[in-house]
Automatic annotation (TrEMBL):
The lineage of its organism: Bacteria, Pseudomonadati, Pseudomonadota, Betaproteobacteria, Burkholderiales. It comes from Alicycliphilus denitrificans (strain DSM 14773 / CIP 107495 / K601). It is an enzyme of class 2 (transferase). InterPro entries: CoA-transferase_III, CoA-Trfase_fam_III, CoA-Trfase_III_dom3_sf, CoA-Trfase_III_dom_1_sf. It comes from the Bacteria. Pfam families: CoA_transf_3. PANTHER family: L-CARNITINE COA-TRANSFERASE, SUCCINYL-COA--D-CITRAMALATE COA-TRANSFERASE. Its EC number is 2.8.3.16. This is Formyl-CoA transferase.
Amino acid sequence: MQETTTPAALAGVRVIEMGQLIAGPFCGKTLGEFGAEVIKIEAVGAGDPLRNWRLIKNGTSVWWQVQSRNKKSVALDLRQAEAQDIVRRLIAEADVLIENFRPGTLEGWGMSPEELHALNPGLVILRISGYGQTGPYRDLPGFGVIGEAMGGLRHLTAEPGRVPVRVGVSIGDTLAALHGAIGVMMALYHRKVNGGAGQVIDVALHEAVFNCMESLIPEYSAFGVVREAAGSALPGIAPSNAYPCQDGWVLVAGNGDSIFKRLMAAVGRQDLADDPQLADNAGRVARVAEIDAAIGAWTATLTVAQVMERLAAARVPAGKVYTARDIAEDPHYQARDMLLTQQTRDGDEVTVPGICPKLSATPGTIRSSAPRLGDDTDAVLAEAGLTQEQIALLRGKGVIQ
């Protein structure tokens, strides 16, 4: 864990997290890293399915150790009215509610935004769903991959003419989570300066992806152009691509006018550096195949390390394609505290991603490791005013775990 005496940016903010898997919980993770108290509501029995996703160590996913650090776990059977009453009791004292259920789920439990705001007028409610809380698709099931497809991203992640592929991580969920965190911050700020009223933040997975699609729609609107997949290249910007080396691939971004001249000199093509037709991006785009071939012919004779060294000397942006091993061994990651050692509640040590963004006065921290299912049920309910006898009775009924 990280020890710090600096204040936390979100100290005093209480968050109730009722989501599972990725989008909602990633938002809760982000808020928790900067000091918010995050109380995660999980189903009795199995809890959040993420506990069992991908690689498992001592019965728990190592992904869980990242996604749920700094959180408290309260296990409730929300099918029971008494469990729903407990959630309302917790929400009444909260600042933020995060949920990523299908639209209508909260309403079915008697927890519509209107009902929750009657209980707690200052509550900020973040609702993340596949298609949003309104519109003709609102009731359709939606996961991150579907949001990536509808948002326009999946169409572009392919080699031309080949099957669209995943980015490799759940980018749709993560983008929705980050948009949600931004929305929470804006709503909390508005509440602070405008009289204490809460509001609802509606984030759709596909809209979060679409918001990052740059000039996709303006180009279609103005020119009727449908942007197509371009593999590793950056369409309309040249040169910017991946190039083969003797032992791997290197990315080179030589698309600035002065950078291009230095790049061509570095690869031994002074003729291209001095060519007036290539002095600006428009000219380079028209001859991008020629430029890419020149760069690729040079990189193919060298190792990745040699290319990186020579382009660094020429002040040309370049980067190797990192694997997990490359990241884990990289001194820059280590110097910036982006690789931290976290101890699980079973006593294992695991290296986990550090915290981003980095705030100078109120940096994020890892204060506690990810909880076992229901680890904090008794403590949270006692703090909410339930007696030990009431907690025992609820446990006997299967309402809590």
